[in-house]
From TrEMBL:
The keyword Transmembrane helix does not apply. Keywords: DNA-binding, Pyridoxal phosphate, Transcription, Transcription regulation. This is GntR family transcriptional regulator. GO terms for molecular function: DNA binding; DNA-binding transcription factor activity; pyridoxal phosphate binding.
Amino acid sequence: MATIKPRLLLALMENQADGGRRARLCAALREAVRSGQAVLGERLPSSRHLAQDLGLSRVTVEAAYAQLETEGYLRRQVGQGSFVAIDMEAAAPRQASGALRPAGAAGALRLSARGQRMVDTGGCHEPERPRAFVAGSPDLQAFPTGLWRQLLQRRLRQDAAALMFYGDPQGLPALREAIARYLGQSRGVRCHAGQVLVLTSSQQALQLLSATLLDDGDAVWMEDPGYAGARTAFSASGARLVDMPLDGEGATLDPARPAPRLIYLTPSHQFPTGQAMSLARRLAFIAHARATGAWLVEDDYDSEFLYDHQPTPALQGLDDQGQVVYIGTFSKSLFPSVRLAYMVLPEALVAPLVTARTIYDGHPAQPMQAVAADFMNQGHFAAHLRLMRQLYRSRRDVLLQALHSHLPWATPMDSRGGLQMAVRLPEGSEQAYTRQAAALGIATPSLSALYHTAPAIAGWRLGFAALPPEAIDAAARALERIGAHGQYRG
Ligand SMILES: Cc1ncc(COP(=O)(O)O)c(C=O)c1O
């Protein structure tokens, strides 16, 4: 039988972009066998010849042959040479076209129904790096990274062995204690550490709730407009979304509708409009959840940042029957990549959800949990929040002033808090204004895109918290050139 030509191996090696010479020769040999260019019984050049032809050392060629023998591609016989050891045609028959099947694909890609639903949602998208007026970013320049580093170093010095092992799937007890204390004191949440489940993000909380509480076709009531991350998580799980338009008191409750399985609310600072839900409406939702057995999910994503008065206490604190699941996140109050968030669960949900979370990922990284616990317990978290509230309040004021001076056609909807401000635009103008803002290099995230069945309001969600005052002012001045009818004035 013929001997494989060194030229073929050289060409195949040249196609391998990565790795050292030995790795590339191994990849070329595998490719020659898998593609049928080297067939069962075919002899390989001697290692001496191949080394000469390819300009490699003989040691490299010997090592590659030995590796391929271990993997089952080659057989080496003392005194006789090296031979292809596998019949690829018999082991993995070609399709009619003659091409080998691409790995893992049986013809057209076929996902599970659940997988397809997930892909169809388009997924979730995190905010871009801060620039005017990307929404949803905290100011990371102001974060005390030096202090965080010291706390991390101390923890790694003292507890490295424990922190590097797997941890409690419910979350580090010290962090759960700190969260329960913080929520009791500043959000009126009634809980103990045993009800806290530490997660990597609110998104993971929503995903976990979908997986454990919702069956295909279950109704989930959502605020309209509302948070896309929650819609995505619930609809990917096969739930049927039912929109609740807003009125002056918050999401509207229609008791005549068939009972939902779950109700998702952002009552303290409605996403995206910023309004707070009235006490009467909160009590009505709790009563309805109790009467129908629905779960009330309260996403309290940014109530650390209310500027003009104390935030309304959490809805969870009004519930004495265990209907409310409370979600909070450190993505905004610490930094997004810390990957720490939490749920406060009614007692009955603790064991099932802790078990379910072990199926996803075990727990968040222990060192980060430990440092977050120290940061909270030593008073740094409260101090950081105080500082950030002041900083963000002053930037909110700069934005309000800039809107007033330069963009009188953009009307703030509710500016009490948050890292972004929803503004109304003249009806029918959003698309044209957005295009013109983009041409000026300014991001103006859409408000109308967050409406579903309720009549959409033209507007933007202007992120301001991460921007220095000069950047807010400069961007507003640049947008001033956009005229009242979507045309440049000058
Ligand atoms: C309503 C709401 N919930 C949750 C989050 C984000 O939380 P996480 O980063 O923990 O997923 C956001 C982010 O903007 C949000 O607007």
